[in-house]
Amino acid sequence: MLSKLNVTVKKMRNMILTALCALLLLGGNAQQSQAGRHPTGCLPGIIKQRLAEVRKKFGPVTIISTMRRGARISGTGRRSKHADCRAVDFKVKNKMKAWRWLNKNHNGGVGLYHGRCSHIHIDNGHRARWNRNYCG
Questions:
Q1: Cys-Cys with 47: which of 1, 43, 67, 135 at CB 3.0–4.6 Å?
Q2: At what angle do helices 95-105 and 45-58 cross, to 10 degrees?
Q3: pTM score, two decimals?
Q4: What is the count of structural domains for the chain?
């Protein structure tokens, strides 16, 4: 019984700490997805800047994923930029126009995913481009 209580307390503490960190990193202006689960405070400045530019040019952005502890690139086993909060996956209404604009204006990674997980990915790694019909 006591061990179950300790696990519950640890989970609650981690959730509170994560929320507080997101608020502190953004000075109280946390921009999150509609579900509120993907804080952008940990993202590098260039990624935040690109998201702001996409919002201005193409409308509202829904964040799908930012920080994912231990994240690995499917099929390679290599560490993902998401593991260090250096990448963001998002949806935007005019996905193709936004993707083309990012291809021209972003020097990091830019990926486009179709199908059930349709979204755009950007990161602050080396310049890379991909357009996939699967979700990896």
A1: 43
A2: 140
A3: 0.71
A4: 2
